[in-house]
Amino acid sequence: MAKATTTLDWCIVRLGDDHNWWISETSDPVRWDVDGLSITDPRQVDHLIEIVEPLRDYGFDQDLFESAFILFRIDKEEKNGGVRLKRVKDSLFDSDDKLFALADTLDEENGPYADLLDHLTRCRVKMLNDLIEFESKLTVDEVEDELREAQNADFIEGNAVHTFNELNSILDYVPEGYEADEDNEDKDPDDEDNEDIPDLDAEEEEKLKNDQSLKWDGDDEEEDNSKESKSEKPKKAPERRSKKRS
Question: What pLDDT shows up at residue 201?
Answer without folding.
Answer: 54
